[in-house]
Amino acid sequence: MKIIIVGSYLPRKCGIATFTHDLYKSLIREGHEVHILAISDKSERQFPKEVQRVIPRNESQYYTQAGHWINSQYDACIIQHEFGIFGGESGAYIQRLIDQVSVPLVVNLHTVLMNPSTPEKLIIQQFGKKADHLTVMTNRAIEMLKSVYEIPESKISLIPHGVPTFKITQQSAKEILGFTGKKVMLSFGLIGRSKGFETAIEAVAQVNDPTFLYVILGATHPNVVQEEGEKYRNQLIQLAADKGLSGKVLFIDRYVNDEWLEIYLKACDIYVTPYPNENQISSGTLSFAMGAGAAVISTPYWYAKDLLQKNRGLLFDFNQADQLAACIQQLLDNPTLLDQYRKNALIQGNKMSWPNVAKKQTVLLQKLSKQNKTLKKQGTTLKSNPALFNVEQRFPAHANPYKSLLK
User: Fold this and answer.
1) The domain containing residue 177 runs over which residues?
2) Which of 51, 128, 146, 152 is a plausible cystine mate for 36, CB 3.0–4.6 Å?
3) 13-52, pLDDT tens digit by residue?
4) Pair 241, 371 in one domain
5) What is the pTM of this model?
């Protein structure tokens, strides 16, 4: 099957870009021919060869033209949706693309809001009408799509957030990083004010264990750097110093590649997501940590509550450093309990491996493709096809924006 994935993409430094790349690789391994239609915010210097077209985020006309181009080139389309990726109010320009796509279309929703604005709600409802299927990463998201957005369950499937297959052992990972003999707690991801790192640092100040080390891994989010430089990171460093945590909290200012991320995740004993906001329906960082077999401690945002059921992790209340400190201390004082949480996380993480995710995506796309072919034989299609004209005339190669960014 020839598949196009629409979303932000490497070298952009964001979670959706990483997700899109990981999905691309997993579908390639399933034997599909896969390309990328990248949404660009002009931060990328050059895209890799799998990127066939680029849409400037805020240029509405290219969304329409890209829809026609997809129909002429591909058997199926997968859109990675997050409101901030696309141009227009609440990312409304993506609707121009889905209005034109006539091949089987799947929209993978990374965010589902319980209390959306009117534009946000309309966009998701349009997906429910125009796309052939929606995929989400938790059962809670399915319930919200049904109750808040009135989308029938028959158009929704749960496909978990993929996680890499880890090959290195924890002992080897700790040796590489110089963490041998340490009990390591890790947080990773782009640094910003919505991650709750202050709560985690305040909790670490209450932990009583000379071998304990908290690692905050990740570069500052590019949008934060643009707005205020490294002000927030410096505030966190100052907070750790004020709490007397020299040698107990380690800041690593790097946007790590897959190889190094695997090493850091396998080296950690405990993983913490102290996010202060309940309305988070997915988290790649939490998914990866479970795939690595870390004992997870998290605030009860929606994704964590779903994923950490059945003793797969510990929850503490938002902004409650005392509760987090108690959870950490409990695991450090009881190695048997720590190991049990790690084993439970690993079992769940294996179910979420990228090969398993790719198989689920393949089954879904094949089902939609079969339905589409059946309907065509009956003289109709899943969606009307407006692309009854010269596609290259409407979206010629020389008119491809940011063509110089394509390898």
Assistant:
1) 170-351
2) 51
3) 888 999 999 999 999 999 999 999 999 999 898 999 999 9
4) no
5) 0.83
